[in-house]
Design goal:
Elements (H helix, E strand, L loop, with lengths): L1 H28 L16 E5 L9 E8 L2 E3 L4 E4 L4 E8 L3 E5 L4 E5 L4 E7 L4 E7 L4 E8 L1
Parallel strand pairs: 2-5, 4-10
Antiparallel strand pairs: 1-8, 2-3, 5-8, 6-7, 6-9, 9-10
């Protein structure tokens, strides 16, 4: 009984130490984006690719269009459930990059083509998606 408790305590301590180290790496990776809010604790799964014409976004789809520097719809808060698949589908009239802070996911945008960034919302908190080059907030995503 005592050796089982000791073993569980050691395993819990090692797991907490490993998770703490992962959080430090993520924070360092995001250091160049100071001033952007997020409550990240781990690097989740995410994929980001320009969308070919025959590929359709899946899951909870958030569509954003940027024309002449104007967002449609305007920057806003989107709420999604923990564990949901979320797709940001962004079309812009200029080339740029969409960056989802906290998830450290990126997709390059080709002018006039839809760029798709799909991720699993597996970290609770609020995360900004922005046009990196323009420094423009596209949407804030709250994961609960």
């Amino acid at each position: 009984m005592i050796s089982t408790r000791l073993t569980l305590s050691v395993v819990a301590l090692l797991a907490a130490s490993a998770l703490s180290a992962c959080g430090a790496e993520t924070t360092a990776a995001e250091a160049d984006h100071a001033g952007h809010s997020s409550t990240e604790t781990a690097v989740p799964s995410a994929s980001a690719t320009p969308s070919p014409a025959d590929t359709r976004p899946t899951g909870n789809v958030i569509r954003i269009e940027v024309m002449g520097g104007e967002l449609s719809p305007p920057a806003h808060l989107e709420r999604v459930g923990l564990g949901e698949s979320v797709t940001l589908a962004v079309t812009s009239d200029v080339a740029d990059e969409v960056h989802l802070h906290g998830y450290d996911a990126h997709v390059d945008l080709v002018a006039g083509q839809e760029g798709v960034l799909t991720f699993t919302a597996d970290i609770p908190g609020r995360f900004e998606a922005e046009l990196e080059g323009a420094g423009a907030l596209l949407v804030e995503i709250e994961v609960k």
